[in-house]
């Protein structure tokens, strides 16, 4: 992904059309052009072939990087690998209205954490989509907020929901949200934590937190520590659940109509998505 001189964004698969070499190894940096790390082919910022180093023959016309959709929305950058997906604003539906009072544009990136969790991404999503576990898994969160009043607000669109939990006093956590399939967030005082779940196979995911804060936000270190504690607790229980799911000792579970209706909606979306591709 690149930011162009006019401020717009471009994004490409990290694949050279010559022989599938990488354009970048890892991380981020600055470069006028994109150069394949394998054989040195160079491409412009818009993905067109600039030069094929010492190729020895004329390169066919039209050689270029494969682009992907990328758009910035309120300071957050979204990339989509499926060219048939509608534009982001259309895809989000009514979700932006839920964040209209959160001043995302005034926040800046502060830090990132990545933790490998030994579970399927759907197991982790199941955990996020209910507050039933909060009193038993998250004791510190339960002290600061009324976990028995945890509510998952599900509208007409099952692809997203907003979670609220009334604070008992000073608390860092009271509003959360999720968007299908692997995007979540926490609204914190003076900031916003973006949470992504990146599958690394059927039994592992990377849980990536990006913390964004306003320049005048206070207690950011304390917020970070509290958030990471909750994330560690979620990772621990999700890994245990995953082991139990495949142990042979578990068959079919039950869903609480009071606490877990969002899971039923999520499971239906998973089944529909699998059926559509099979």
TrEMBL record:
PROSITE patterns reported in the protein's UniProt record: RIESKE (PS51296)
A GO MF label: 2 iron, 2 sulfur cluster binding
Residue ranges constituting the Rieske domain according to the UniProt record: 1-79
Listed SUPFAM superfamilies: Bet v1-like, ISP domain
Keyword Oxidoreductase (UniProt): yes
Signal peptide: none
Gene3D superfamilies the UniProt entry points to: Naphthalene 1,2-dioxygenase Alpha Subunit, Chain A, domain 1, Rieske [2Fe-2S] iron-sulphur domain
Name of a matching Pfam family: Rieske
Keywords assigned: 2Fe-2S, Iron, Iron-sulfur, Metal-binding, Oxidoreductase
Named cofactor requirement(s): Fe cation
Listed PANTHER family: CHOLINE MONOOXYGENASE, CHLOROPLASTIC
Protein name, UniProt field: Unannotated protein
Record organism: freshwater metagenome
């Amino acid at each position: 992904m690149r930011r162009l001189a006019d401020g717009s964004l471009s994004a490409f698969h990290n694949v050279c059309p010559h022989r599938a070499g990488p354009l970048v190894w890892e991380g981020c940096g600055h470069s006028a052009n994109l150069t394949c790390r394998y054989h040195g082919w160079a491409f412009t910022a818009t993905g067109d072939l600039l030069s094929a180093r010492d190729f020895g023959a004329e390169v066919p016309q039209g050689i270029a990087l494969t682009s992907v959709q990328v758009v910035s929305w309120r300071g957050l950058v979204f990339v989509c690998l499926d060219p048939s997906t509608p534009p982001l604003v259309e895809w989000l539906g009514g979700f932006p209205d839920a964040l209209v009072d959160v001043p995302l544009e005034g926040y800046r990136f502060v830090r990132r954490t990545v933790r490998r969790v030994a579970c399927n991404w759907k197991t982790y999503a199941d955990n996020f989509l209910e507050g039933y576990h909060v009193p038993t898994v998250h004791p510190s969160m339960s002290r600061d907020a009324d976990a028995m009043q945890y509510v998952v607000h599900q509208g007409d669109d099952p692809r997203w929901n907003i979670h609220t939990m009334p604070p008992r006093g000073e608390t860092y956590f009271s509003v959360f949200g999720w968007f299908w399939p692997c995007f979540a967030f926490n609204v914190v005082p003076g900031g916003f934590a973006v949470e992504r779940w990146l599958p690394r196979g059927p039994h592992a995911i990377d849980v990536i937190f990006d913390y964004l804060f306003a320049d005048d936000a206070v207690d950011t270190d304390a917020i970070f520590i509290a958030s990471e504690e909750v994330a560690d607790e979620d990772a621990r229980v999700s890994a245990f659940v995953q082991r139990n799911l495949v142990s042979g000792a578990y068959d079919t579970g039950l869903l609480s109509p009071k606490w877990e209706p969002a899971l039923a909606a999520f499971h239906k979306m998973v089944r529909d998505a699998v059926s559509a591709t099979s």
